[in-house]
Every structure is written in structure tokens, then in C-alpha cells.
## 1
Amino acid sequence: MTQPDKDAAGGIATAAAGWPDVEQLFGVRGEPSRCWCRFFALAGTDFAATPPADRKAMLKNRFDGGAPAPGVLAYRDGTPVGWCAVEPRQCYPRILRSQVLKAAGPDIAGPAIASHASHEESPGAPSVWSVSCFVVSPAHRRSGVAAALLRAAVGHAKAHGATVVEGYPVDAAKRPKAGAPDLYHGTLGLFLDAGFELVSGAVPGRAVVRLRVGPPSSG
């Protein structure tokens, strides 16, 4: 397992995720143990048609192929207490097809995505990584875990070649009744506090935010 880095807040340590600790955190009850963070990886009706056991196997496979870990973990006293999924945007077909991204326009979505012509990234586009999901153990919510995870996710993406890190948070000011099941994207305030810039609020209550972590593409 990657050695966790100590975070300044609340005795939290973070590290690139390892499968055994993800499996421990997600457990056997609750939405994480049913979704296995595959909602954005399975477009259309594919998610509903895929049993939870198969979703779990799909996520495990992301750790077995030699690619960077598909997320980061937060720890307290050596126990995993939070997860943040972060991967290149093209790993998430549902995000590429989402109205939240398309409504942001071609400068953000890329002309091919915004025009519905293709779901591939545009040639010469910056290497965009997406922060798609947070899971925080109920006993550790509102204690700095999500903020530590987001910092770690940005560092993980940058270390593996990202030039832009993107998120799709809920704007709690416009959706004040949003509960925990709606907030797995993270909140707009969380991202803004981490230095992200709001680049689209075209879909009410949902934002697209970005943080540049590398030089602009020369393509």
C-alpha cells in the first residue's frame, strides 16, 4: 500500500487508494456497497443492468491493470474513513454524456462532446481529470475528511499528468434540501475553498468547476 501522507486537518492521512482498504470502507451495507463507484463508468441503462457484485469486480479491476489508482483514501488512526474517485474524464462515459457537462459549452466540454457528435475527448484538449464521487464514513462527516480527500485527489491527478482537474458539485445554496445521497458529488463550497473556479452553473443547482494544475496545452 502507498504510504499515507499526513494532512494538516484533524489527524487525517491520505494516500492513493489500495483495493483492500476500499473494500473495507465500502463494506457490505449502504449505497457504496451497491454502487461500488461505477455509476459514472456505466452509461445509460448499463448501470441498472449490472448487479452490485459485477460493479464491485469492475472497480477491483481498475486496481489490477497497471494504471494509476482510480481514487484516493483518507485514514484516521490507520482506518480508512473516506474515498474520493478521480480519473481521466474519458473513464466516465456518463459524465461525458451528462447535460451538466454539455450545458457548460464547448470551451469546457470540448466541441465534440457539446455537439453530441462523439464522446471522445477533443484532439489537443488538456488532460482533464474528473473528481466524480466522495464516500465518507458517517462517523467522520463534517470533520475535514472531504477537504483532505479533495486535496489528495488534486495531487494524485497532477502527479499522473493532469493539466486540469474538474468537478461537478451540488450548489447547496440553490438546493438547500439536498441530503447525503445527493451530495456524493461534493458541494460547491468544498471545491471553491480548495481553489477551484466556477466555470458553469447552466444547470440549476449543479456546477462545473475547474482547477488548472499544469501548463496549457500547446496543441
## 2
Amino acid sequence: MMQQRIDQLTEITPAEKLRKLQAWIQPFIAPAALTDVLTQDEIGQFIGLRRETINRLLHHKR
């Protein structure tokens, strides 16, 4: 599990960081979505991005 977390932090693109976090945490929070459990600010803190970037990535996926 720690190696997965380290891999998340070393990914290149912000979108890939977010995707990896979602994949990693989904088994623990299913059937809830990531944004049901964490705020955009908390998601950003987990993967080293600003809240604004998280917001943009989440809205871009829709």
C-alpha cells in the first residue's frame, strides 16, 4: 500500500495523480465517490495540487 501511495506522488501529470488517488481509495470508500468523502482541498493535499487544479480536473471529466 505504501508503494502505491509513493507512486501516486511521483506521477507526472495532475490528471494522472488524481486518477491514481481515485483508483487507490475507491475500494475503501465504495460505493461513494472520492468527492463524497474528501473536499477538493483535502484531495489536493493528498496529491500535492492546489484546490483550483482539482476543481478544474473534476469538472473537465464531466
## 3
Amino acid sequence: MHELSLSSAILETALRHAEGRRVKSVQMRIGTMRQVVPDSLGFYFDIVTRGTLCEGAELEHERVATLLRCESCAREWRPELPIFRCPGCGCGEVEIAAGNEFDIDSIVVEENEETKCIAPR
């Protein structure tokens, strides 16, 4: 259900950066560690955008696979199971190097019958 609040945040960000222009699409990067269900996110995005300049906009996403990095030996790996131990040295102190993303990469807006891609800052 947290996809509803995430969709609302995406809408607010898109509208702020669109500066009054109709939004055609929003491209995102979503990490697998985020526990976001993309179909649910799209469903709620369609609901929260009704009656706004984002209504009908496509919510596109790229899934980012989890990548862990050992803080001891710097080895990186993609875990197959939720085990957070370095397969090289056995250290349990790891950082998430990738897979925790929830970023808007770009927003495509209409501009005088053409489209323009903008990147939020």
C-alpha cells in the first residue's frame, strides 16, 4: 500500500519540474531492495494523476538489481538469497552498492506541440 504515497510523491515532483506543462511520461530507476511492486505503483500513479497535468502520463521504470559491497575486502556481488555476508572473506559488514534506488531520471513534457525531456535536480 505504500505505493500510493510513493505515487503521490512522484506526481508532486513531476508537476513541480514540469512548470505548468503537460507531462507525457516519467522515467524512473527502482532498486530491487526497495520492495516496490511496479504494477501497483503504476496503478496508483494512474489514480493520483487524474485531473492533473500528469493525467495519462506513462510511468516507466528500470529495475536496478541489488549489488552488495564488502566493507572489509571491497568485493562486490549480487546476492541470490537474502544473506548479507561477503562470499570472499565472510565479513558481515556490507553496504548496498546498488538496488536501493528510487529515482526519477527524467520527465517528458509537452512544449508547444513538441516534447521536451527534463531531468529533475
